[in-house]
Amino acid sequence: MKEFQLKYGCNPNQKPSRIFMESGADLPIEILNGKPGYINFLDALNSWQLVKEIRENTGMVCATSFKHVSPTSAAVGRKLSDRLKMACFVDDIDGLDDSPLACAYARARGTDRMSSFGDWIALSDECDEITAKIIAREVSDGIIAPAYSRGALEILKGKRKGGYNIVRIDPNYRPNPIEKKQVFGVTFEQGRNEFTINAQLLENIVTRNQQLPSEAVTDLIIALITLKYTQSNSVCYAVDGQAIGVGAGQQSRIHCTRLAGTKADLWHLRQHDKVLALQFAEGVSRPDKNNIIDIYLSDEWEDVLGDNVWRRYFAVRPPVFSKEEQKEYLSKIDGVSLGSDAFFPFSDNIERAKKSGVRYIAQPGGSVRDDLVIEACDKYNMVMAFTGMRLFHH
């Protein structure tokens, strides 16, 4: 296929629209079902690069959930604990533990379920039936993968009344090392960001604590590769082989750190006994459950627990999960990793990261206040590596 005509561009008024290879070569993709749009393909091509690189640099299968050209999460194929299965709404999936890829997507989708509503999915390896069964019941726009089993393809083709977008990409495709785009009629050209993110990148540890365990190395690699394909400014928290909080597209670094930290905190809180014990009213949908849980954990909890409304949402009225209880629970979290796509200009980022259990940090370094940032890390016995490489993505 030399080109693919799109219904429209980013918005319905932006016509005509198409994707094609400027060289005249065939596109490196095959559309197996549906009719993806302009933004779908932006998500597809960015998300594929992310999972491909994590696969190459960790040796583990990977999945990501994308929305508006940024990942909500990315994860490798580690088994989920029983608590995490419940929090990710996959405790009823038979054979989940037998599919590393399904575990990866369950983690990625379950991290920030509100943001993942209507996501684009990328898988590093062939989509199997168990992964397809998880995807089948979620609200999603489409998927890209290097291959699909026959059973998985049949399941996915049944989504959205047969219109689900399914794209297969050539895993051996390598793009031109020079990339171009146009803005306001002006052509921009640059070398592709083919910088490799691996364990060697984390060897320049600048804090007193020099102990960076292998689990943290993996988490930092996942965080940094996630940031490589996240709209900047961006910060990513990661633990146990998955990104648990992504702050994207903020003008201020501390706002990135706060946003991503809040998402990481919610990921932890969703695994608390009070949340796992919620008894929803009959007929409450999966997407509604996500929204209800977020409200239950917020300052607006009365919107779902009030005397005149709780029966709409719950079979049994749950107890209030106070901010004091939440703070106490989160204060015990430790061992979280954090990556930043550019240097921290102030130590306030470290102070905020500490509140979300961060122990390990990777950032480029190069700020005039690096000494103050290092000092803040030393105060909390954190480990911080300077990578020397900025990861802006626009």
General description of the model:
It is a single chain. By secondary structure, the protein is of the alpha/beta class. It folds into 3 domains: 21-178, AICAR transformylase, duplication domain (Cytidine Deaminase, domain 2); 197-269 and 333-386, AICAR transformylase, duplication domain (Cytidine Deaminase, domain 2); 273-320, no CATH class. Helices cover 36% and strands 21% of the residues. The strands form 4 sheets. A 6-stranded mixed beta sheet has the order 3-8-7-6-4-5. It has a 5-stranded mixed beta sheet with strand order 12-11-13-14-15, with helices on both faces. A hairpin with a 2-residue loop joins β11 and β12. α1 (38-58) runs antiparallel to α7, α3 runs parallel beside α5 (129-136) and α8 (253-269) packs parallel to α14 (348-355). The longest helix has 21 residues, at 38-58. It is globular. The chain starts with a strand and ends in an 8-residue tail after the last strand. The model has no long low-confidence stretch (mean pLDDT 96).
